[in-house]
Amino acid sequence: xxxxxxxxxxxxxxxxxxxxxxxxxxATIFNENYDSLYYYGKKLVRDEDLVKDCVQNLFLKIWxxxxxxxxxxxVRPYLLKxxxxxxxxxxxxxxxxxxxxxxxxxxxxxxx
Length: 112
Fold this sequence. Notes:
The protein has 4 helices and no strands. By secondary structure, it is mostly helical. It has a single domain, classed as RNA polymerase sigma factor, region 2, helix turn helix motif (Rna Polymerase Sigma Factor, Chain: A, Orthogonal Bundle). The chain is elongated and about 35 Å long. Residues about 1-10 have low confidence and may be disordered.
C-alpha cells in the first residue's frame, strides 16, 4: 500500500548531482535553462540588465545554498518560480535602499 502522506520525490539526477556539489551539473542546469529564464524574466520586467542580473544572482544563490535545497523532480519550473520570486524582491530592495539613503542624507542647515 502506498503511503499518501509521503513527500518523496523522484529527484532529477542532474539536480541530485548539483546538490552534491558537482560544478558540471551546475553548468548543465545553467546552460539548459538560461534562455527560458531570461525570456520568462523579460515577460515580468522590461529591464534586460535587471533580468540578466537576477538570473545570475539566482544561480549564485542556489549554488551557495545547494545543501539546503529540496529534492526537485522538474528543475525548470522550480527555477522559473524562483526567478519570479527573486525579481519580485528587487522593487522592495530598491525602495528600501532609496528610502535609507534619503533618510540618512545630511541636510544642510538653513538658519533664519
